[in-house]
Amino acid sequence: MKEKVRIAAGQGFWGDLPDAPVRQVRGGPIDYLMLDYLAEVTMSIMQKQKARDPHAGYARDFVSLMKEILPICVERDIKVVANAGGVNVPGCAAAVRDVAVELGIEKKVRIGMVVGDDILDRIDELLAAGIELCNLDTAEPLAVVRNRIQSANAYLGAAPIVEALALGANVVITGRATDTGLTLGPLIHEFGWAADDWDRLAAGTIAGHIIECGAQCSGGNCQYDWENIPDLANVGFPIAEASSDGTFIITKHEGTGGCVNIPSVKEQLLYEMGDPHEYITPDCVADFTTIHLADNGPDRVRVFGIKGRPATDSLKVSISYSSGFKAVGTLVYSWPDAYKKAKVADRVLRERLDRLGLKFDQVLTEFVGANAAHGHLAGDPSPDLAEVQLRIAVRGNDRAAIERFTKEIAPLILTGPPAVTGFAGGRPKVEEIVAYWPALIPKSEIKPQVKLLAN
C-alpha cells in the first residue's frame, strides 16, 4: 500500500482549459489524473448527439487529449479516471483503444468501462413498477413530462471505479459517475478502505469535491484577494495528496500560476453545498462542519478531522426533458441617457408584441451594466452610464410566436430610441429549452456493470 496518493484534477467541466491535463501529467509526479466532463445539461446534449449518430454521445475532446498524454501516462504509470463516456461509454472506450493502437501501445493500455447509469430505456418499466421518480423540488411524478424526456442517468458512486481498477485498468471511463467518486474511487483502491469506513470515505469525498472544479480551488474564479492572484494565464490545477488515514493536502505543481490557500479552498468547499451536515453521495454522507483546514506551506493546505455517516439507500437521478423554446435578443444603448433609452426600447418592444397578439410563458428584461447582475440591490443606476445593454428574452411552447419575436429586435434600431449599437450578432435564434428534473431511485434498481475492453 502506498503511503501517499496524488490525484490531479485535469478538467472541471466539458470545455475547460484543453492543456490543463497535459500540464498536470508533465508538471510533476502524480498517480492519477481525474477528468470531470459531465454536468446535468451535458447528458442531454450527448443523448441528442447519439440519436443523430450512434457512434457519438461522449466527450470527443477526451479522445484527442488521450492521444497526446497516453504515452507519458503509460511511461509514468499514471492512471486516468474520467466520466467522459457520457451516454456512450463503449464508444468512448473503443475510440481510446484505437488511439492506443495508433500509438503502438495498446498492449500497455487496459481500459475499464463502467456502465449501468443510463436508465432512459427503463423509464416505462420503472413507472409501471411504482417508482414514480418524483421531482425533488416540486414532488410531481415523472409521468407529467414522460413524453418529453431526453435523458435519464443515475449518479453512480466510487464502487464501480474501484472494481475497474482492481481488474487492472489504467484508464477508467464512466458515464454519469459523481464528481467526487472520480477521486474517491482511486483512494479506496489504493488504501483498501472498507465500505463502511465512513470517516475515510467522507474524507475522500471531500477531497474529490475540492478538486472537482479544477482551478476553481487554485485561484480561478476566486473572490478573495483576486487582484493579487499571480499568473492566472498559467494557472495550476489542483492536486489532492492523500494519506491512508483520510487526511490530505491540496496543492498544485511548482512553477504554475494561481494559488492554493485556505480562502481558495473554502470558496470551493461552499460550491454546490446544501445542508453542510449532510453532503449526500452514493458512497457516504459527509459532514462539512467537521472539516479542518491548516496552512501547510506555500500553495499547500492540509485538510483533516472529517467525519462521515452511512450512505442512503437511494441514488440521485438526473433527468432532462424538453420544456418549450426561447430566444434572447440584445441591443446596446450609449450615452447620454443610456439606461433611460434602454427602458424606453423595452417598453416599445413589449407594446409591439402585445399589438401582435403574441403570447409567451415569460418575458424577461435585463439591463446589463445597470442592474442585471444584482437586480434591485443595485439601486438606482447612474444617469451618466456610458452604455447599457438591453437584453430581452422570451420563452414558451409556441415556436411560431418565438420566431416572430426574433424579427422585432432589429427594427428597434431605426424605430426606437436613438444611439443604438451592438446588433452585430444578427437576428436572435430560437433554441429548445432543456429543463432539469432531479429525482431519487432505490439503489436496488441500479446495477452497474464493469468490464475491461478487449485489445
Q: What would you say this structure looks like, in words?
A:
By secondary structure, the protein is α+β, with helices and mostly antiparallel strands. 28% of the residues lie in helices and 25% in strands. It has twelve helices and 19 strands. The strands form three sheets. A ten-stranded mixed beta sheet has the order 11-12-8-7-1-2-3-6-4-19, with helices on both faces. β9 (279-280) and β10 (285-287) form a beta hairpin. It is globular. The mean pLDDT is 95.
Helix and strand arrangement:
Blueprint: E1 4-11, H1 20-26, E2 32-35, H2 40-52, H3 60-76, E3 79-82, H4 89-103, E4 111-115, H5 123-128, E5 149-154, H6 159-166, E6 171-174, H7 181-191, H8 198-211, E7 238-243, E8 248-252, H9 262-269, E9 279-280, E10 285-287, E11 292-295, E12 301-304, E13 307-309, E14 314-334, H10 338-355, E15 362-368, E16 387-396, H11 399-406, H12 412-415, E17 420-421, E18 431-442, E19 449-452
Helix pairs in contact: 1-3, 3-4, 6-7, 7-8
